[in-house]
Amino acid sequence: MSDSQKPYILAVDGGGSGCRVAIADCDGNRLGGAIGDAANVASNLDSACVNVAAAINAALKDAHLDHHATPNICAHFGLAGYMDEKQGQILRKKFKFHKLSLTDDRPTTVLGSLGGQDGYVIGIGTGTFCGASNAGQMHFVSGRGFYISDQASGAWLGRRSLEIVVQCDDKILVHSPLTQSLLAQFNNINAMVKFSVTATPRDYARFAPDIIRAASNDDQHGRALMNEGAAYLRSALTTLGYQSGERLVLTGGVGPSYLEYLGKPFNTNITKPLGDALDGGLAMAHKLVLQSNEACA
């Protein structure tokens, strides 16, 4: 590339409830960005591609760039549900960048949150993962999707809360203000059952704020759910090798809400994230520039 064609870098952070895009120059200066709809490539690859493409176009417009800049862009996508090169081939065919690297959304979140330093990350939004970074090596627990994984996630909280509502309706458990308010949103238990037949992780996750709020108000079922989620997170961190005093970042829309439920020793060195998944994605995109020897002035 000539000097006038030096590449931009672009990052996509895609999850079960939405996606975000950032565009920067090679020095990391943000030029534009956009948000879009859900982009979990395991749940619906075609829909994810459409949503990511729309968000990228919006980000290009925000950066005062057009589609002619696309061949000059080195990009990294960190997409929930990304697992193999079969998905990668479809994505690379769809998105014609100068270079494109692909991971799921866990490595980008860990890299961005820790700023390349050692430590641990709990990332919880619609889904869940726990990650560790040590001397540049990353290891993960969970993050394999709502149906068989993602305990403690926003979607998990939502589904578990409705399970409790059913048990309260069956008189196995006693209603609390939380379960009564959840049931009231459906008017009756049959409507709730019908909802569950087609509900997506995103649908369940919309109840998470109600559960978190109820728990903070000492609702018995709200606190039980948060404690159950926290117990899973403690076991995940232990599996990853966490030791008392090591750096731990809580990130995502739900992650920080678990702070008061983790307990010692897991809450002894909670630190603010140094960045986010988009920062991690831009760092990975910049590596593509360096690998192709495209120096920036």
UniProtKB/TrEMBL annotation:
Protein name, entry field: ATPase BadF/BadG/BcrA/BcrD type domain-containing protein
Organism superkingdom: Bacteria
Upper lineage: Bacteria, Pseudomonadati, Pseudomonadota, Alphaproteobacteria, Rhodobacterales
Species of provenance: Paramylibacter kogurei
Gene3D superfamilies assigned: 3.30.420.40
Residue span, ATPase BadF/BadG/BcrA/BcrD type domain: 12-254
CDD domains found in the cross-reference section: ASKHA_NBD_GspK-like (cd24082)
Residues passing through the membrane, by range: none
Pfam families membership: BcrAD_BadFG (PF01869)
